[in-house]
UniProtKB/TrEMBL annotation:
Residues 124-218 form the OmpR/PhoB-type domain. Residues 124-218 bind DNA. Keywords: DNA-binding, Phosphoprotein. Pfam families: Response_reg (PF00072), Trans_reg_C (PF00486). The keyword Ubl conjugation does not apply. InterPro entries: CheY-like_superfamily (IPR011006), OmpR/PhoB-type_DNA-bd (IPR001867), Sig_transdc_resp-reg_C-effctor (IPR016032), Sig_transdc_resp-reg_receiver (IPR001789), WalR-like (IPR039420), WH-like_DNA-bd_sf (IPR036388). The modification 4-aspartylphosphate is found at D51. This is Response regulator transcription factor. Coiled coil: none annotated. Residues 2-116 form the Response regulatory domain.
Length: 219
């Protein structure tokens, strides 16, 4: 799952980035409102963390622009302001949730996970199919109750397919959602990750629609 962080406090931004990467997210970072407006309006993010007090352009105006463009990406706003009116303004502008600074990183991570589940229409944080269980809170996978070790990229592919269970996902879409902006998004490597996942989780766990993409069904 790919996330954009728009935050001008570099230390805080790096802390958030490290926490999200540790959970298997692909993370892009911008530090001002102009960059945020461009990246959030042109790249296919699964979630955006947006600071209200950005330089060049404030977060509220950026969020209003995204929503006006039809960008439906879930947005978690951050604010250092104490006034409740700022939170109301953010929610009315189209934000899905908010956090006031300072905050505890585990809470931010939990809110991110909850928002990603809501985006995919999933209530249970543990995805189950057959004898495979995938805990989206910590990327832990078991097969018949026994732990399965996945690489970070395998876990990223599995996470995106699990969050989109029942829907066909193309190679190019997968590549866009598991790699950061500056990475080489070679969609051909996706087939390698799919092959590895099938070896570890069973040959029928992920379906292939030839020439179209991959899918994990809801059964």
């Amino acid at each position: 799952m790919r996330i954009l962080i728009a935050e001008d406090e570099t230390v805080l931004c790096e802390q958030i980035k490290r926490a999200l990467i540790a959970e298997g997210r692909a993370v892009d970072v911008v530090h001002d409102g102009e960059e945020a407006a461009f990246m959030g309006g042109t790249e296919p993010y699964d979630l955006i963390i947006l600071d209200i007090g950005l330089p060049k352009r404030d977060g509220i105006s950026v969020l209003k622009e995204w929503r006006g463009q039809g960008v439906a990406t879930p947005v978690l706003i951050l604010t250092a302001r104490d006034g409740w009116t700022d939170r109301v303004d953010g929610l009315d502008a189209g934000a899905d949730d908010y956090m006031s600074k300072p905050f505890h990183m585990p809470e931010l991570s939990a809110r991110v996970r909850a928002m990603l589940r809501r985006r995919s229409g999933t209530v249970n944080p543990v995805f189950r199919k057959g004898n495979v269980e995938f805990d989206t809170r910590n990327n832990r996978v078991t097969l018949g109750g026994f732990p399965v070790e996945l690489t970070s990229q395998e876990a990223a592919v599995l996470s995106y397919l699990a969050h989109n269970a029942g829907r066909l996902v193309s190679r190019s879409e997968l590549a866009e959602h598991i790699y950061e902006y500056d990475n080489d998004r070679d969609s051909n490597t996706i087939a390698v990750f799919i092959t590895r996942l099938r070896k570890k989780l069973g040959p029928d766990f992920i379906q292939t629609v030839r020439g179209s993409g991959y899918m994990i069904d809801n059964g």
